[in-house]
Amino acid sequence: MNTKQSNFLILNAIYLICIVVTFVVSFTIFNDAVGSVAFWINLVASYVAITAIWIYVRYIMRNLEQVKRFVPGYTALGVVAVMYLLCVVFYSLFTSIAHLSLRLFTLAHIVTLALALILCGIILIYIRNMQRQEAGVQTKMVTLQQIEKALQQLHHTLGNPLTASMDEQRRDVISLIELVRYSDPITPDSLTYNDHQVLLDIELLNSELANQYTSGEGINSERLAGQLSQLKYRLTERNRQLIASKS
Question: In 29-61, which positions are buried (b, 16+ CB within 10 angstroms) versus exposed (e)?
Fold first, then answer.
């Protein structure tokens, strides 16, 4: 049995112990109120609170890496679960006299549960939004990395013996690689399309050169230089617009 499985067994054992202890304590302290509605409302609410914390801890244990990336949100969920349990424990102090105002006692439980669910819903929406934003950032960073890899492939292609006379073009590609490498990887949505188009153009240029090598055709150095110049302009303009959007 590995460590993770043993941890889950310990957690499940703790959960069962809490359920049993809650049952025993409830029937011991409030034995005179066992037949009352307030007693059973409080017992069920206690089970709900304990189960919620158990589910929360299990989720944390199963998704530790994800939780580490969104610590504030998941911490807030835990705080809400613990606060709900504390409220239930507090309400239990009035179980013996709840018959004097059963409606108010029931309303307090319902309102507390509703508030806990609403807060958890808001926090989950926040976590989902943060996850989507992170996924978007990762996608944009991957696109810039793909541009750099495509340029490296282009530089490798231009190292072919058939293009031994294209030292200037290789230097241009190296400058493009450096330009991309030190660019801000967090691209705003308004520039995402441009990044994809730049990547597509570089891949098409790589494919074009590969086809020319395969067919034995010569490389038009002037046309290639113009294409590289255009790529440099677009990447430089991209960086300028990115800086302007953050100023």
Answer: ebeebeebebbebbbebbbbbbebbbebbeeee
- 3-state DSSP call for residue 216? coil
Going from the C-alpha of 186 to that of each of 21, 182, 190, 231, 241, the distances in angstroms are 52, 12, 12, 19, 12
Q: Is the pLDDT of residue 18 over 80?
A: yes
**Contact of 12 with 51, CB cutoff 8 Å:** no
- For the chain, report the end-to-end CA distance as a whole number of angstroms: 55
* Dist CA 91 CA 178 (whole Å): 65
Q: Please, are residues 57 and 4 in contact by the beta-carbon 8 Å criterion? A: no
- Interval 174-183: pLDDT, tens: 888 888 887 7
Name the packing angle between helices 37-62 and 3-29 (round to 10°): 170
Res 31: pLDDT:
75
Residue 108's contacts (CB-CB under 8 Å, 6 or more residues apart) are: 91
